[in-house]
Amino acid sequence: MSGEVAASGGLEHGERQPGRELRINDELIAAGHAAGTLRPEFTSDDLHALVHDNALALKYGARPDRAGYDRRTTYLLDGLRGR
């Protein structure tokens, strides 16, 4: 096993470990809630759906210019902030 594979928990680049992304989402959301930086009702399922939906929009929609993409990302992130 190469050093890169060992450091990544035994996964080759691009290889998926079922459920790993969801566990990481749970950890991120828990940390955001604990710090008070995320809305209390925001869940890891919400994060997964937002990332998935954004990827689909970018894949199948018209590509926005960088300023438009940054502006919309700011709107999205501002809506997740704790009050």
From TrEMBL:
Gene3D superfamilies hit by this protein: Tetracycline Repressor, domain 2 (1.10.357.10)
The name of this protein is Uncharacterized protein
Q: Which organism is it from?
A: Actinophytocola gossypii
Q: Where is this region: Disordered?
A: 1-20
